[in-house]
Structure formats: structure tokens, C-alpha cells
Specification:
InterPro entries: Cys_Synth/Cystath_Beta-Synth, TrpB-like_PALP, TrpB-like_PALP_sf. It is built from eleven helices and eleven strands. By secondary structure, the chain is an alpha/beta fold. It has two domains: 218 residues, Rossmann fold (3-Layer(aba) Sandwich); 110 residues, Rossmann fold, CATH 3.40.50.1100. The N terminus and C terminus are likely disordered. Bound molecules: pyridoxal-5'-phosphate.
Length: 385
């Protein structure tokens, strides 16, 4: 498929008001109606070699980001099941994007929202969440085994105990967090017609499972490529300190569709920063950690696949919340993130247990890891009420 030429669909001198209205941006009576129908953008030369490229699904065009799709969906489903009584509090652990979606859901359905985060949340996002009326709690010390994520989940349990009517979406294990992404898959089918490869980041596993499974039903030979961060447990690596947010985990989310992935790539923070900054310079459309990591992998797949392969890559959000991290020179220098142009090809391991990876690495064996006793499946019993 060729990229669309730069063109204006209507001649504004001769178009009627009705035509202009039909061609203009959507109008909505409520912000939740602005979720979805995000555009796809062709990412080609010079980010990719001549004659190669991929389609980026720009989820940053949602009011908050990709989680605007799942937060209101999970809330509506919980209300329907009467797990969330009218006006009751929503309590969740989030590194940011789901928080924005839950703020939207809270305003849409009339629920107060409490979010638990950690010091890694950008001050701008915490400030924005407060502006949206959210009660933001920040944990100050990581759990000795489950890291920041488990520390956040334990605070969620405390808040749930304090508010007997409250409900936690439990995005890591809630199947509605997968079902919410069916429209994303349908949009891709409508926009691209045929898809040979899907490149998706994995955090809770929600958008990869929800989009990939539906697309596989349309295209049975679809290749699904998961993108994770180094030091994430999801695909069987040991937990470690992670700078990258959004993708990756220090627990084992039940929503990850292990049987669906053909391969996984782990990406390190300097490599994601290189890709996000190179995308910004060459293609304008960019994002943060997960967009950088996904773009790096999609670029490699485009280079190493036949030219006629049609590749879709999901960009979960836009660049704005990363101005103080990925796009801040002082931050990047302090974390030694600059000047690391990734290699042409990833390292390759045959099995996730073969090595602890610290830079871009690919593995074509994808299986559900067995949580280590005492570590890992630190799911919050009873949280998803
Ligand atoms: C920016 C960003 N990218 C990627 C992900 C991973 O998406 P998922 O949780 O659907 O696996 C998240 C999840 O929070 C995110 O916020």
C-alpha cells in the first residue's frame, strides 16, 4: 500500500457548507465521544530505508491516550455488572495513561477517582490528573520483591478497605481491558485493508491481546510482535530497575496473550530514546518510551521484510508527557540515554532464560513464564471488586 499523497480533499472555494462540515473534525456532545477513530500515519524514509516503512496507529489522538479506550469500557462494564454502584469511588494503580482514561470515565459516569502512583510519574501528568479532579496518591518506597508496581497495588488495597463501595478496575487481570480494544482492531482493518505484521508494546497486555486476537481472526497468518522493556518480567526476564514507563511490568499480568505472539523484543531505554527523538526529527509524530521502542522494532521489521509486507505499529500516546524525560537533554544526560544509536539488528536469544538482556534483543520462543515462588504473581486478591 502506498502512502497517501499530501492533498486537500476539498476545494474550499467551491465546497458547500454541508461538504465542509462532513469533511471537518468530528463534533461531540461529550468528551467520551472523541475516543477512537484515530488516524494512521505512514512512517517511511528517512526513518526507514528507501522503499520500506510501516503504518503507525496514532493513539495519542485520543483525548488522553490509548487507555481512553479501556478505562470507560471497564467502568461501563462494572456498572452494568453492579460491581460499581452509582457514585462509588474508582481506585486504581497507574503510571499515567490509564489515569487519564479513568479521569475521563469518572467525569463521564459520575464517579470520584483515586489513583496510586510512584515518584516516577511526571509532575505534569500528576498535575493534570489533579486538574481533572483525581485524588492522586504517591507511594514513596518500592516493595522489596514486586518493586514500585507492587507497592502501588498494596496502597490500592488499603484505599479499597477504606472505601467499602469502591471498585478497582485491576487492569492487569481484568478481561474487559482486553475486550475494550476490539474497535481499535476494526479501525485498523478499515484503514489498512490487509495487515501482515502487528507490532505492539506490552504492559498489562490489554491492547496487544485485544487488538491482536481480533486481527488474527481477519488475517490468520498475521505475525504478532510484542515489544517489552529490558528488566521486565512479562516475557520471562528477571525483574530489575526500569526507567521506561507504560510498557513492561514487575508482575505477571494475566491479560498477556502469550499464545498469540510470534516473537518478543526487549528494548533498552537509550534505544527507545534514540528512536523517539529520530521519529520526532524526521516524521514529527512521536511519543515516549513505548512509542520509541515500538518504532525501533517496526523499523527493523520493515527493513528485513519483503517490500509488500504491510506492517501496523500501535503508538500508545503522543510526545507531550515526555518533555521532561525522553525529550529533556539534562534528564537524558543524567541517565546516560544520549548518543546510543542502536545496532542494525537486535541480539537474538533462543529462550528467555538463556540470558539476562540489557539491550535490544529478540526471542522467537514466547511462553507464559512460571512466576518464581514469593515473587511475580503478586496479584491483588479481591481487588477487582
Ligand atoms: C504509554 C503506554 N504505552 C504502552 C502501554 C502498554 O499497554 P497495555 O497496558 O495495553 O499492555 C501503556 C500502559 O499503561 C502505556 O501507558
Amino acid at each position: 500500500m502506498k502512502p497517501h499523497p499530501l492533498s486537500c480533499a476539498l476545494d474550499s472555494a467551491s465546497a458547500s457548507p454541508a461538504q465542509l462540515l462532513a469533511a471537518s473534525a468530528r463534533s461531540a456532545a461529550h468528551p467520551s465521544a472523541l475516543v477512537g477513530d484515530t488516524p494512521v500515519l505512514w512512517v517511511g524514509e528517512p526513518f526507514t530505508p528507501a522503499g520500506r516503512g510501516f503504518w503507525a496507529k496514532l493513539e495519542g489522538h485520543n483525548p488522553g491516550g490509548i487507555k481512553d479506550r479501556t478505562a470507560p469500557y471497564m467502568v461501563a462494564a462494572a456498572r452494568e455488572r453492579e460491581a460499581l454502584p452509582p457514585g462509588a469511588r474508582i481506585v486504581e494503580s497507574t503510571s499515567g495513561t490509564l489515569g487519564l482514561g479513568l479521569a475521563l470515565a469518572g467525569i463521564t459516569y459520575g464517579h470520584p477517582v483515586s489513583l496510586v502512583t510512584d515518584p516516577g510519574m511526571e509532575a505534569q501528568v500528576a498535575g493534570l490528573l489533579r486538574a481533572y479532579g483525581v485524588d492522586v496518591h504517591t507511594v514513596t518506597t518500592p516493595h522489596p520483591e514486586g518493586g514500585w508496581q507492587q507497592a502501588r497495588r498494596e496502597r490500592v488495597a488499603e484505599l479499597l478497605a477504606r472505601h467499602p463501595d469502591a471498585w478497582c478496575p485491576d487492569q492487569y487481570h481484568n478481561p474487559d481491558n482486553v475486550a475494550a480494544y476490539r474497535p481499535l482492531a476494526h479501525e485498523l482493518v478499515a484503514q489498512l485493508g490487509r495487515i501482515d505484521t502487528l507490532v505492539v508494546s506490552v504492559g498489562t497486555g490489554g491492547h496487544s491481546a485485544g487488538t491482536g486476537r481480533v486481527l488474527r481472526a481477519f488475517f490468520p497468518t498475521l505475525r504478532v510482535v510484542g515489544v517489552d522493556t529490558c528488566a521486565s518480567t512479562i516475557f520471562g526476564q528477571p525483574a530489575g530497575t526500569r526507567l521506561m514507563r507504560g510498557l513492561g511490568s514487575s508482575i505477571y499480568p494475566r491479560n498477556v496473550a502469550y499464545d498469540m505472539f510470534d516473537e518478543v523484543h526487549w528494548v533498552a531505554a537509550p534505544e527507545a530514546v534514540w528512536a523517539a527523538r529520530t521519529l520526532a526529527r524526521t516524521r514529527y509524530a512521536t511519543g515516549g518510551w513505548s512509542v520509541g521502542a515500538v518504532a525501533l522494532v517496526a523499523r527493523w521489521i520493515a527493513r528485513t521484510s519483503p517490500a509488500e509486507q504491510r506492517i501496523a505499529a500501535v503508538f500508545p500516546d503522543g510526545p507531550h508527557r515526555y518533555v521532561s524525560t525522553v525529550f529533556d537533554d539534562d534528564y537524558c544526560r543524567a541517565h546516560q540515554l544520549l548518543g546510543h544509536e542502536p545496532p542494525d539488528d537486535p541480539d537474538e536469544i533462543a529462550d528467555p532464560a538463556q540470558a539476562v538482556v540489557t539491550r535490544w534483543t529478540r526471542c522467537r520462543t514466547v511462553t507464559r513464564p512460571r512466576p518464581h515462588p514469593g515473587k511475580g504473581d503478586l496479584s491483588l486478591a479481591g481487588a477487582a471488586r
